[in-house]
Amino acid sequence: MEEYESELITITDEDGTVHELEILGNMDYNGKTYYLFVPANIDELDVDDPDYGYIILEAIMEGEDEVFLSIEDDDELQEVYELFMSLMEDEDFDPEAE
Length: 98
Known about the structure:
Blueprint: E1 7-12, E2 18-29, E3 32-39, E4 55-62, E5 65-69, H1 74-89
Antiparallel strand pairs: 1-2, 2-3, 3-4, 4-5
């Protein structure tokens, strides 16, 4: 995987908590757009912290705004996770090309 400049976004969850996330990549699958993130401060988190690890969200457009949604279906989430992991293992994966 090639090195690239980190792209960070800030989102607010339904509880009003603000999260800064690093975008690792995105993909279109089954007519939906998914993004793979990690917390921007992942290097500072303990592996037992519930915020540690990958975050996968579905992106939809609401007017001119891109909105990120949690994936409620466990099977869908697992399938998208496996696809992202497969893409990341591919030597030619370029997160900026997605």
